[in-house]
Amino acid sequence: MHGTMHPIHRRTLTVLEVETLSPSMRRITLGGDGLEADFPFVPLAVSDHVKVVFPGSDGSLALPDPEKGMRLREPVDGHVPIIREYTIRGYNAELRGIVLDFVLHEHGVAGRWATNAAVGDALGILGPRGSRIFPTDPSTYLIAVDETAFPAAERFIEELPQNILLRIYAVAPERNRRPLGRQPRGEVEWVNSADDLVARVTQDLLAAPLPDDAVVWGAGEQGAMQQLRRALSDGSFLPKSRIDLHGYWRIGFSGEIPHE
Length: 260
Ligand SMILES: Cc1cc2nc3c(=O)[nH]c(=O)nc-3n(C[C@H](O)[C@H](O)[C@H](O)COP(=O)(O)OP(=O)(O)OC[C@H]3O[C@@H](n4cnc5c(N)ncnc54)[C@H](O)[C@@H]3O)c2cc1C
Fold this sequence. Notes:
CATH architecture of the largest domain: Beta Barrel
Helix content: 10-25%
CATH class of the largest domain: Mainly Beta
Shape: globular
Number of strands: 14
Strand content: 25-35%
Structural class: alpha/beta
Largest sheet: 7 strands, antiparallel
Strand order of the largest sheet: 5-4-8-2-3-7-6
Number of helices: 4
Radius of gyration: 18 Å
Bound molecules: flavin-adenine dinucleotide
């Protein structure tokens, strides 16, 4: 695994296009003068993300300026920035816009913003701070995601070389399921809940163990990822150094959760 750092730009972008992916997800393309042609969309940096700054209830956008040494939580003109992280799903060369996929829900600012977003709406974007490029030498990737990490899973599917075997586990109720990736590959094992995810992955690994060089990558609700990490470690399915799981949100917690 290797990485590159980027200067942290801040950008005010507008919605160029909104696409419905499923009843629970919308794909939103953002662009405008703030988006220069060399926005760092790095191949194989499939989990790269930006900090999205949302408008407050009065419509104001409190966009901190890291280049001026502003801290992200400091008020801007009296308004505390509302910041959440989103995966860079792609770069749309035709529209000249970055593509983010949002889970729709009524519990938080971001979920509600995405539910109502329309062409012309403004958002702030900070970053990406860096790119983490995934290796292409493992023979197998096991990917375990809920909907917040479908964008990363789709990038794995589209960007990893075809000779790499993918074993994909995805959590979503039946109504929100859809083919993952522009050209789906590997069997997607769909499950309804985090508990089902842990049970299914461990059961499958007992029946068909991973090769020594495999990597497990996963992201989703933090408690679910902790449960999965414990199950994989307890079962000694593969060395800890090959398990890469991330909490992307936490039940009952608002805002950016501390990175593990
Ligand atoms: C590196 C990284 C990349 C991410 N990429 C994406 C992405 O590409 N697409 C995406 O949709 N999300 C992504 N997320 C997750 C997203 O940042 C969180 O879901 C965020 O909390 C949403 O903010 P909110 O304002 O809607 O809710 P918050 O104000 O943070 O939370 C309010 C309430 O909503 C609940 N909640 C938060 N998220 C969800 C959810 N998804 N479903 C149901 N309830 C929820 C919380 O538990 C809390 O009770 C990513 C997170 C990280 C760390």
